Amino acid sequence: MRRADQIGAVLLLLFGVAYAATAAKSYTYWGANGPGSGFFPFWLGVAMAILATLFLIGATRSPGPGEAWLPSGHGLIRLAAVVGATVLFVVLLPILGMTLATALFLLGLLRFLEGHAWPVTLGVAVVTAVGNWAIFAWWLQVPFPIGVLGF
Amino acid sequence: MDVFANLALGFSIALTPFNIFLAMVGVVIGTLIGALPGIGPVSGVALLLPLTFGMPPTSGIIMLAALYAGTMYGGTITSVLINTPGESASVVTCIDGYQMALQGRAGPALGMAAIGSFVAGTVGVVLLMLMSPLLARWALSFGPPETFALMLLGLTTVTGLTGQHALKGYISMVLGLMLSMAGFDIISGDPRYTGGIAEMLDGVDFLPVAIGLFGMGEVLAGAEEAASGQILKARYGLRDVWPTATDWARSRWAIVRGTVLGFVVGTLPGAGPTVASFLAYTVEKKVSRHPEEFGHGAIEGVAGPEAANNAATSGAMVPMLTLGIPGSATTAVMLGGLMMWGLRPGPLLFEKNPDFVWGLIASQYVANAMLLILNIAFIPLFVRALRLPYSILMPLIVIFCITGAYSQNNKIWDVGQMLVFGVLGYGMKQLGYSPAALTLALVIGPLAERALRQSLILSNSGLLILFQRPISAVLTVMALAAVAVPVTRALRGALARRARPAAT
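^ inputs. structure came back:
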């Protein structure tokens, strides 16, 4: 975790500096009536830069590498699979439509990641896709994305 | 009296069939969410928020507040039966609750917790009802400096208390404030930090962030392992659950102490049910005549903390409703909801939206009564729900996150935002940053900025105005102290570490 903290601190430091610089350069620090739109953001950027510097010093001085923060092996694969499947879901959402994408997402995760039997998988996938549609599209009148298949 | 007229108005709203139905939905889902490890009250409120868009705000808050109370009851079930906390406010219940279950006394442990929660929850609502109008009236006199000082206090105390790494907490908080600046500036109308993206003109949307950090983020944290605990078998007939005379005698005062302590801690900005339950446990152990029994199934160790966490949920609503400052992560998400419904949280809420405030208060009595019945008579149902494998639950929550994030504006952009914050939330959780502090700052950010800028316009001595008015001076000093305490502790720790290698 020490390495992750150091990297995080450097990124936050850069972010803070860039943020304060943007505020100072592009927004009004002090207008005719008092503090402008750049005033608060500027000091926020400065605060972040200071905090990140303290954090960097602290992290570098910490005695050991600390615990791992990301899982390894099987855990990492599972994590990546869930994130990947969700990204795929979002990308395919406009093409497949909400209902079909939901069913396919559940199908993929339940059958291939979790190894549930086909009846369980299909049951959960269909019930959820329909239930989700019933709650949001039918009851709450949310216009779901419609896929190329027309639903 | 004023209160009774208002309460009558409240009940006339809370007791409509639709609102009773929503309170019922809230308590059942709340108890389930509380019982299921991995998702707690914050995730619950964030996930159910999209469902409230089609409702009047009063109905929405009735459902969410009922859910919040329900999670406190539900968390106990998991703590006692599996020795895994269902949510963080029931962590401390594991200690003696699980020991009681091992001794075959799971029934009385759950029964006493439910009764204690009911007493504390109800007394908490009474206190909420009596205190809030007074506090709101007092807060009406607040000008920008007081408001800013109050927000500063809320931000610093929440941050100081969450997580072990104070510095990471403050970083999370400042990050939240920075994100909240994106979009149009409320005073000048200038667009800021949009990166030239049209969608960013409205700023970082609260709902996708909350769902991402607390829904998706929690799912990812749970995804890496398929956790399974052994559920202890127990009997849940009414006679098995009802505490014995000895249990009553031992728990009576624990519940009273827990209620008072929990409510007070809950009202403090920053300290919510989790802190309250830990404090209550410590107090019970201190005042007990047989402290050696703690850790081996002392029923006070269940009754006290469980009363405290329920009283704290009512307490946490006091600053949210009267000052517009959330007292806990869950109320921060609720406050975000209030703003999305178009309400302006703060002292004016009591004058402008009495039906909202009093409907909520009255519905909390109803919700607590429902929860008592539910958690005495229907325990087996919730135990059965615990058997639902996480491997099925997890993808379902993802679907709910996606649909919920989409449903506010019907934009896939929001779903993308939700996913980004889901991954960020996971990383923050793993690395010890505080998603709660970020969320709170995101909600408060624009309000704090406006209060600060208005204060500076009023002032002819810059920031010193914060110290020139008595109320804001006290609040500012408290806020600075809240920063100073963890920082000095961290510095002392760092110095000690540096000194040690020299000594050895």
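Residues 2-224+246-503 of chain B form one domain. The longest strand of chain B covers residues 183-184.
thumbs up if we can close this ticket
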